Amino acid sequence: MSENTTRQMIVTMLAEGNPVWFVAAMVNMRSHDVYEIGRAAGYPDKAKLRRAVWAQQNRANRRTAAAQAA
């Protein structure tokens, strides 16, 4: 799994309301590292986390649509 995919999964799991310790166990990282990744995306504000997830999904959808149009 790439680093970017792991970061996105961490942000998504935190946005879903999973606690930091649980996310850390799922991705096999230290809680502090998971917290820092989440904090960069807006943690503990779940609304900011959700917006970060939606923004990432929108970027991916735009790239897919542009590739199909070309």
What does this structure look like?
This protein is mainly α and 70 residues long. The protein has a single domain (3-69), classed as Arc Repressor Mutant, subunit A. Helices cover 79% and strands 0% of the residues. It contains 4 helices and no strands. The protein has helices at residues 3-15, 20-27, 31-40, 46-69. The mean pLDDT is 88.
Short key terms for the protein model shown above:
about 80% helix; elongated; Arc Repressor Mutant, subunit A; about 0% strand
Please specify the SSE layout and strand pairing:
Elements: H1 3-15, H2 20-27, H3 31-40, H4 46-69
Helix pairs in contact: 1-2, 1-4, 2-3
Summed up, what is this model?
By secondary structure, the chain is mainly α. It has four helices and no strands. The radius of gyration is 13 Å and the shape is elongated.
Q: Please report the first level of CATH classification, the CATH class.
A: Mainly Alpha
Q: Helix and strand string, N-terminal first? A: HHHH
Largest sheet: none
| Number of structurally distinct domains | 1
SS elements, strand count: 0
Percent of residues in beta strands: under 5%
Which CATH architecture would you pick?
Orthogonal Bundle
Average pLDDT figure: 88
Number of helices in the DSSP assignment: 4
Content-based structural category: mainly alpha
User: Roughly how much helix do the residues carry, as a percent range?
Assistant: over 70%
Principal-axes geometry comes out as: elongated
What is the third-level CATH name, the topology? Answer: Arc Repressor Mutant, subunit A
Please mark out the parts with pLDDT under 50 across 5 or more consecutive residues, or reply none: none
How big is the Rg?
13 Å
